[in-house]
User: Fold this.
Amino acid sequence: MSLSAGFQPLYKQVYDLLTARLVEGYWKPSQLLPSEMLLAEELGVSQGTVRKALNQMVAEKMLERQQGKGTFVAEHTQESDLFRFFRLREPQGTTLIPETIVLSSSRRKVSKDEAKKLNLDSKESVVELMRVRSIHNKPAIIEKIIQPLSIFPDIDKNTKLPNALYMLYQEQYGITIMSVNDEVRAVEIPKAYAGHLDLPQGSPVLMIERSSVNIDGRVVELSTAYCSSENFVYSVHLT
Amino acid sequence: MSLSAGFQPLYKQVYDLLTARLVEGYWKPSQLLPSEMLLAEELGVSQGTVRKALNQMVAEKMLERQQGKGTFVAEHTQESDLFRFFRLREPQGTTLIPETIVLSSSRRKVSKDEAKKLNLDSKESVVELMRVRSIHNKPAIIEKIIQPLSIFPDIDKNTKLPNALYMLYQEQYGITIMSVNDEVRAVEIPKAYAGHLDLPQGSPVLMIERSSVNIDGRVVELSTAYCSSENFVYSVHLT
DNA sequence: GAGTGGTCTAGACCACTTC
DNA sequence: AAGTGGTCTAGACCACTCT
Assistant:
């Protein structure tokens, strides 16, 4: 006999079910999950099967486990974690934590290209946020961020935006960014931006286009950043 | 009683031992390993413990497993695998496989900076290889590659270099690149290189500095690439 | 001491490959 | 039919945390 096309190992089914609970907010960030034994009992599988599902979720950084304490929903609000996707470094050096100044924030209709990338209806509205990030009091990055209002209702009503937006997304909207896709180009800095970065016209800068993906797999935010690469580099470790 | 500082779980010890065998070439790429049962017997542990070590090595792409057939040493000579670390793409598009022309190859003493990055003695020699890579018959990348002769003896004696050097490293020198560190900058194209890429002087290009790491953790190759980013982007998925 | 996750074992059954 | 890896279970013991 051959297996039906819909067959899934037990541990995978457990993984899917637990992930679904995280997505719908049944368990909130930092919350303690039931123990392996309790989950196994509830779901009618063995403790080892639950463990395999949990360990996979830990590997994907959805959960964190501590021996003797329990299993917790990952909270991406640690310094180290907030800048998990921030790839700008000093050459061969240390992580740079930038300060941030918001230039502007406005609502508008989504563009055709944005709608496609964000999988939105063409009639939806987005917030366009412009900000400058400085390192050691030197402006280094200017970025434009696109946030769909259907995903982040009234996000432009926030009087104070945190340095790391992903923290706001998680705490206020239940959006947990699990991965990003970056496309990096070298371009001459756009005339309108040269002044903001204290660079002469025509300077080469990194242009980084990013799509950010929620735990449920949806692209929920787009950004375009222009970075002076005189003192900073885009740094990645690939395995 | 407290555990001694040197304590390691059994599966970790098995992992270390098997990894050591790979590093020293005891098992060669594409070779079939003994079955879980045989390894368990040889090492005096249970089959489940061996499995845990093997699965970790699979996750790190050192091994590959096929149900019904066995466990094999990963062979990084598949098209998909050869370009595992090649990050240039058409915007939002498909992988680009470049053709390659060697410009020059010469021996010289290692520079101070290179010696540091490669962890070499300052008296050692390296091969400096320059090549141009084209995509769709348009020159797109010019790169300088530094190969220590102590690691790659007489590598400059090869009459024909493959498109993907990592294949040569594995097949001829037993060097398997397991990870790379990239630093990406935007710069004006160096005058000497503009002609090779058919670009006007002063054009902004991506400069990608790479360190490549062997299975044993040593940095074994350095490269610096200049890439026209008119038609290509440096593309990464971060998780 | 009670409860948690971490490790290790042993054995069963399954699906896939090869002969 | 024999051998392989893949899944699942059950139970043991350990180290860690909290009370």
Observations:
- The domain at 10-73 of chain B is CATH 1.10.10.10 (Arc Repressor Mutant, subunit A).
- The first helix of chain B runs from residue 10 to 23.
